[in-house]
Design goal:
Helix content: 55-70%
Structural class: mainly alpha
Radius of gyration: 18 Å
Number of strands: 0
């Protein structure tokens, strides 16, 4: 677990619930500590030791490729923005400990091992000379890969994030995290807009109607994934340069 400057860390912690933090100005070591702080501040599930979460964060960091945009900076940014969004909207307060952990871990893993190209590109090149082999999904190629690899990291015997869950709890957690990650598939954007419109119509008729927790979690990460434009202009510009590189 890396050592970092305590003053830098303390200063950054103050921005974790804001939309002003610029992770690209920080080192990966500092981001690891901030990711741990987010997990801990959200409330770790009973029995989940902090050192296991540290190993999980480091494994995610090691699995991110050195792409201009889809890299460790991006997944950290989505995790931090998810925390800020889910706090200000009241979503976080509705969740239990494992749901909170699932939400934040899905955000951190939503682009795990991203190759820096789109699903559409991968589906076209297939097993060509570009080197992308063994493509087994017909749609959402990347998102399904991210979801599978996220759970693979969590159950790694040296990490064991999910060791304390019984089979029912494990499958519920796995299903929820997978759905959250799959929600970031941009081809499903119109479907989510339709679901939101339908919910708004029901809410207009009955203000007591609440959005399901699962849908709320999916929307938090989905919105965080495309949130660069709501950040301060200098931060948004840095992300824009990266995504167009």
């Amino acid at each position: 677990w890396p050592a970092v400057d305590d003053d830098v860390l303390a200063s950054c912690k103050k921005e974790l619930l804001s939309f002003t933090l610029d992770p690209t100005a920080l080192t990966h070591d500092v981001l690891c500590h901030l990711a741990l702080e987010m997990f801990v501040s959200a409330g770790l599930p009973a029995g989940l030791a902090e050192d296991r979460v540290q190993r999980f964060i480091l494994a995610v960091r090691a699995s991110m490729l050195d792409n201009p945009y889809h890299n460790f900076y991006h997944v950290f940014d989505v995790m931090q923005t998810t925390l800020a969004l889910s706090t200000v909207t009241g979503t976080m307060a509705r969740l239990d400990a494992w749901e909170r952990f699932g939400l934040l871990s899905a955000a951190l893993c939503h682009d795990l091992e991203h190759p820096g190209v789109t699903s559409a590109f991968l589906s076209k090149v297939g097993n060509s000379a570009h080197g992308y082999k063994n493509l087994i999904f017909r749609d959402a190629l990347l998102e399904k890969h991210h979801a599978l690899r996220a759970l693979g990291v969590m159950v790694d015997r040296d990490i064991g994030i999910l060791d304390g869950l019984d089979s029912g709890e494990y499958y519920q957690f796995r299903g929820s995290v997978s759905k959250i990650i799959l929600a970031t598939d941009i081809s499903k954007h119109k479907d989510y807009l339709g679901d939101l419109q339908a919910f708004a119509a029901r809410r207009a008729e009955d203000p007591a109607v609440e959005m399901s927790k699962q849908m709320a979690m999916e929307l938090m990460v989905k919105c965080a994934d495309i949130s660069n434009v709501i950040k301060p202009s200098k931060v948004a510009r840095r992300w824009a340069l990266r995504v167009t590189d």
